[in-house]
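REQUEST ID: PR-0412
SUBMITTED BY: lab tech R.K.
PRIORITY: routine
TASK: structure prediction, single protein chain
INPUT:
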Amino acid sequence: MFARLRGQFAFALVDRERRTIVLCRDRMGICPLYWSRQGDWLLFGSEIKAILASGLVAASPDLHGLDQILTFFCMPGRRTAFRSINSVLPGQFVRIQLRGGGAADIREQT
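STATUS: complete
OUTPUT:
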């Protein structure tokens, strides 16, 4: 399905029957999409402040992420300037397969 999509987008698909969540982002990376896993919770949003507003994620800095911003003037990977908040990379999607007891398998794919 993702190979046929055109334009700018960032979205989440939820399949309750298969207990799967897919977070997807456009190829050019125009629309941002961030996510964080906190215990049994999966948080995602188009802005980091949406995840921080949940109160489940502390606004603590990721020093390696900050170093990348100050060195390259961009984020070359999925790491962000905040600890435990990740970015879905342009043209990729993240598949989260929910398991029992709060466990989940998380895979990033192109």
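NOTES: The helical segments are 48-52, 63-72.
REVIEWED BY: pending
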